[in-house]
# Entry
Amino acid sequence: MKARLAYWGLRLGVGLVGLLPYMAAVWLGSLAGRVWYTVDGGRRRMATRHMKRVLGDEADVARASRSSMESYGRYFAESLWVRAHRVPEILAKTSVEGLDMVLAAKAEGNGMVFCVPHIGNWEVAAPVAVREGIPVVAVAEDLPNKRITEWFTSMRNDFGIEIVLATGRVEVMRKLEQGIAANKAIALLSDRDLNRRGVEVEFFGEKTTLPAGPAALAVKTGAPLFPVGVYFKGDGHHVVVRPAIEVPEGKRSDQVKKMTRSMARELESLILEAPDQWHLVVPNWPSDKE
# Structure
């Protein structure tokens, strides 16, 4: 019963937000994020801890933490607002930096991997790639509520994203490899290690783990691994594609570890471009759970 109510509550939210003009939806989402920051002490504490890591104690951490939650609210509002017929409107207000590298990778025909942090609205990268004739595949969490998972998948389809659910099975990697073989882009959120079985790295001055999947996929298939950030910019978005992470010499396991540590540095650089848009507000370092 609870699962059904949650599903229909979300569908109602999609319907209501979808009726609003874009800027009204953005304003409502930012307001919701501000309220969320005020009432949810756990999320507020995590946002504050993460902003301290990124900015240091001397910065206005409270303001940055609140802004990160407002950014999260805007992301959700845009996700609820988008429809397939509105994607051109989003693209018209989206600028791209580094597109030439993506087009060169497409021409080579070996596919590509995007490692993406939880910043801005990362999903806007997908319609940019699709516009250039590059299908996008992403891995998403397989939620307990199957109806919400199906709804989530359909929303991503409106952005041009083909979803593979993270079931933890070998078939997931096989599907991603098939996507690479078909010259698709595999987009992977890479600043959070869900199963804590990834590669140990130093991330913003403290040891944690980041997922090995992006580097492992790149090493195994030969596809370039591009760090990608998508930022809110006024009433639009700005996509930044950084040069592909170099593949080091050595055996495959060492290559994956070294590339993942290089990925950590790249993700830091992308996040530092707009730290108050980084809305990862869950435990991400071992000390967060202590």
Observations:
- The chain has a mean pLDDT of 90.
- The chain is about 50% helix and 20% strand.
- Residues 1-81 form one domain.
